[in-house]
Amino acid sequence: MKRVIIILLAVCLLVPCAYSQTTKKKKKVKKKEVVVEKPLEVALPPRSADCLFAVSLMLDSTFGPTEPLQGSGFVDDIKKDAQTKNVFDQEHNTVWYKLDCPYSGKLVIDIKPKSELDDYDFLVYKYTDQYFCNRVEKNRVKPVRSVMSSVNGTVKGATGLSLKGTLANIAKSSTEAYGKYIDVQAGESYVIVLDNLNDGGLGHSIRAEIFTEHHPLYINPIDSLAKQRTTANIRVKESGTDVEMLNVTDAGNTKIKLLPHKSYDIYITKQGYFNYYRHIAYEDAQGKDSILTAKLSEIKVGSNIPLTGELFFETNDDGTVNLLPESTKALDGIVQVLMLYPNINVEVVGRISTDGLDLRKDNENSKKRADAIKEYLVSQGVPEISVTTRGSSNKELLKQIDNQNKLNATIFPKCEVVIKSLK
Q1: How far apart are CA 350 and CA 373, in angstroms?
Q2: Which terminus of the chain has fewer CB atoms gathered within 10 Å of its CB, N or C?
Q3: Which segments of the chain have a pLDDT < 50?
Q4: DSSP output for 128-190
């Protein structure tokens, strides 16, 4: 202890001013937030300058900005001749894209160069079959849209197809930047070839969208423990078919289109989190601001395993509580998770509406609900030792009453399955 005191005295003697200026307040140094920067450019596949290796585009999702390729690839797919009009005189720096149309409507395309000095021309073909590229090379298939106008400075070099466009083919002598949209049908595919006339270009971004009658739905991934927005992989399929509406990675708030008389399966995944699934139909999204808040639960102690549905209970005259058959769909998701992750121990927490008149009885009944849930989980093969139960505590019930008084409405809380420990 003496040695410590001597060292401290020595330090004070060496730097006397360090403790003498007590009147000035030290400025608080703000910690810099760690910013994880995403790549600025998307690397194109090396052969995507050739038709056979066209890059797949996803509707309503911007691809790029790209890291540009140089040259026309190994094959000169486009060769202008006397019979074939409205195509490039030659390929310069090309990229091929392929777009599948999962529904009918008006197809628009937006192409934005990183540098407004780059001069992009493009052609759109209707895809035929596996011999499509061979047919293009031999000029046996004609483009349905051709936009080869000069750079338009008012739109900063952007080009594409738009709802306001009127021309199917735009010549180089024109400054009209956007051609006319294409009326497409569900199941059709289109191929877009984009050519930058300038060598050493800086790349571009491209986005395709089909305008049709729909209800918009915004998918908003949320970290359920941190209670803040996050990113995730979002995949949307049309129910009953293999038609993929959307497939994006590391996406935040994302808009999808729900079409009349259609329903969809939404799959959301994130590393270290439980998978999220939701079935939703056109009728479920009304108005302009329909939002699906996807609460993602991290695989850690304290997280709730999400219930994909509602639970229904029946209280008998003798006070026993039964889980009704309509509840099994919601609990089967819990069963799958616990079978997939045998290292997880969970606690089932029973919840119940309350008026605060008999908290002891509410606690008992909520515990019976938890026990009924456990009984079903065990009947489906979940080890009994992996599941414990409890009812809502007095503190939780009183908080529920307080919230009800603030809202002036009865609260119907959902039972929870909480990760208690990880083996």
Answers
A1: 9
A2: N
A3: 1-25, 29-37, 39
A4: -STTHHHHHHTT-S--SEEE-PPP-GGGTT-EEEETT---SEE-TT----EEE-EEE-TT-EE
For position 14, what pLDDT does the model report? 37
3-state secondary structure of 221: strand
- Tallying the residues shown for the chain, one arrives at 423
Query: Using H for helix, E for strand and C for coil, what is the string for 55-108?
Result: EEECCCCCECCEECCCCCCCCCCCCCCCCCCCCCCCCCEEEEEEEECCCCEEEE
Question: Can you give the pLDDT at residue 287?
Answer: 62
- 162: amino acid identity, one letter: S
80 pairs with which residues across the strands?
A: none
Angstrom distances, CA of residue 295 to CA of 36, 77, 115, 404, 407: 23, 48, 39, 23, 23
pLDDT at 190: 98
H helix or E strand, kind and range, residue 330: helix 328-340
Q: Which CATH number fits domain 215-296: 2.60.120.10, 2.60.40.10, 1.10.260.40, 2.40.50.140?
A: 2.60.40.10
Q: Which residues of 46-63 are buried (b: 16+ CB within 10 A; e: fewer)?
A: ebbbbbebbbebbbebeb
Domain at 313-422, CATH from 3.30.70.360, 3.30.1330.60, 1.10.10.410, 2.60.120.460: 3.30.1330.60
Task: Please state, in angstroms and rounded to a whole number, the distance separating the CA atoms of residues 182 and 145.
Answer: 8
Structure tokens belonging to residue 401: 């009453």
Strands 204-211, 105-113: parallel, antiparallel or unpaired by DSSP? antiparallel
Do 354 and 312 form a contact (C-beta atoms < 8 A)? no
What integer pLDDT is reported at residue 318 of this predicted model? 86
Q: What is the DSSP letter of 387?
A: E
Instruction: Find, among 173, 263, 266, 286, the residue nearest to 219 by Cα.
Output: 266
Q: What does the pLDDT read at residue 288?
A: 58
Fold of the CATH domain 44-211: Jelly Rolls (2.60.120)
Tokens 């309350």 belong to 354
DSSP for residue 342: T
Whole-angstrom distance, CA of residue 44 vs CA of residue 66: 7
